[in-house]
Amino acid sequence: MSNRSSLFHDDPFFTPSSQSPFFSPTPNPLHYDQTLELENSLSRLSLSTSPFNYPPLDFAANGPSGVNSTSKIHSCYDCGSFGGFTPQSSNLCSGSYSYPTLGAANNRYSSSYDNGFFCCDPLVRQREFGSVFSVVPVSNGVQQKPPGVCSAANFLNGSLGNKRSNNVAGFGVDERRVRWFNELRRKVVMLAMDQHLCRTLQEALKKLTTEEFSIIFMELTNHVAELMVDPFGNYVIQRTVEICSEEQRTHIILMLTQNNSQLSKICYCPHGTRAVEKLLEHVTTQEQRDLIVSSLTPFAASLAKDINGHRVLLHCLQHFPEEDNRHLLNEVANKCLAISIDKTGCCVLQQCINQAQGETKKRLISCIIQNASLLAEDCYGNYVVQHILSKKILGVTESILAQLKGRFFHLACNKYGSNVVEKFLQDSGEQLSACIIVELLDNPNAAMLVVDPYGNYVIKSALLASSGTIRMALEQLIKQNSMMMLSNRYGKKLLAWFEQGKDKQALH
């Protein structure tokens, strides 16, 4: 008893007020056996809700403040320790453990969940972590797994496997699984948002029975919107979508679309976009598509301009039937101008034109034609006009030409408009190109085109697209202004290109 008593007085957490008749300095033979028996009984009690807990992510390798971090104290759930001390008569456990260190910055324990250092004082563990910890011993300087207790990752994998395992702390395999599952139910959202444990949870979801998965599924879907925008939770939702049933997938969509703006807000987040895309990949019924389209349609224009949201919109356009996409495309057509002059929107609108069919496509093109004059000069809108011209749709090129008639000289000298004029000359055919060239040559300031930073490229394209009388008129324009061109940076380049072309023609 003297040795046992000295052990307790050496404990830094021991105070005189905690003494009881069982710890009397004077040995009492009548109480010795009762004391030992009671201590052994108490040592098998766990202050946590379950012996199968998850380790914290913030452990450190040293002991708490004021405790010698190098001291080794026998403590194990299986061997019957309590309060950090093991009766000397116990030989059930040969592992030893070290105290964790209170972090200086945040006064918390810190370490990897796989490294498994722990505090031997149960009150400290309960106060700091509740039941979220795991016990891992240190033996001869090497971390060992104590009998029947695993780290979170190994335990989750092992507890759900088909292999038989020994009873742990008096619990059979079936009861162990039940206790583990009850613990998981209370922590599934927390695990899903953890950087490391979310991966273990994803693997665990695949090993659950149908009944178990249904219970976990309901807990996840109650927080589905929050998890989809979480940096780690979104991966758990993606895995859930992959393995859930069609009815459960419909339930997820109902949860996301019960608020009209909720789904679109998720799409604006980079993490949410990935989760929604995964959900769209597994949509199988018309009901699911109707719910998604009706929720996204009012926000189609803003999604088209968003750097993340446009991916969801394009996914719908590429994988949903035309009848479902019609509502989205009509909303895009209503905001065609605003989308066309946006950096992201101009690219999305081109894809919308490619995917649209029938009346919906005509409406989109009609909106672009009506705004062609403004779009041609815009830094992003000009790409939309060029895209329409490259399609060479019957009647569309003529309609755009009519919209821009009388403004081609101005556009030829514009940084962005000159691209549209060149596209006309390259793809509209010789007859329509001749109309544009004649308009350029009839302008009183036509000579300025050969020395203009952008106009000189238009003249070059005009020479390539013309023949006969029109080409001769362009050559005459260059010859008459050759002296001016020699003293100009851009004119000099155009003249050199023109002379090189003449030399090649002479050789042929």
From TrEMBL:
Record's InterPro entries? ARM-like (IPR011989), ARM-type_fold (IPR016024), PUM-HD (IPR033133), Pumilio_RNA-bd (IPR033712), Pumilio_RNA-bd_rpt (IPR001313)
Alphabetically, the GO molecular function entries are: mRNA binding
Cite a single GO BP annotation. Answer: regulation of translation
Cellular component, GO, one term? cytoplasm
Q: Where is the PUM-HD domain?
A: 160-502
Q: Which PROSITE patterns match?
A: PUM, PUM_HD
Signal peptide positions are none
Fetch the CDD domains from UniProt. Pumilio
Which Pfam families has this protein been placed in?
Answer: PUF
Tell whether RNA-binding is among the UniProt keywords: yes
UniProt KW keywords = Repeat, RNA-binding, Translation regulation
Gene3D superfamilies per the UniProt record, alphabetical: Leucine-rich Repeat Variant
Where does the record place its Pumilio repeats?
Answer: 183-218, 219-254, 255-294, 331-366, 403-439, 440-479
**What's this chain's function?**
Sequence-specific RNA-binding protein that regulates translation and mRNA stability by binding the 3'-UTR of target mRNAs.
Q: What is this protein called?
A: PUM-HD domain-containing protein
The lineage, from the top, is: Eukaryota, Viridiplantae, Streptophyta, Embryophyta, Tracheophyta
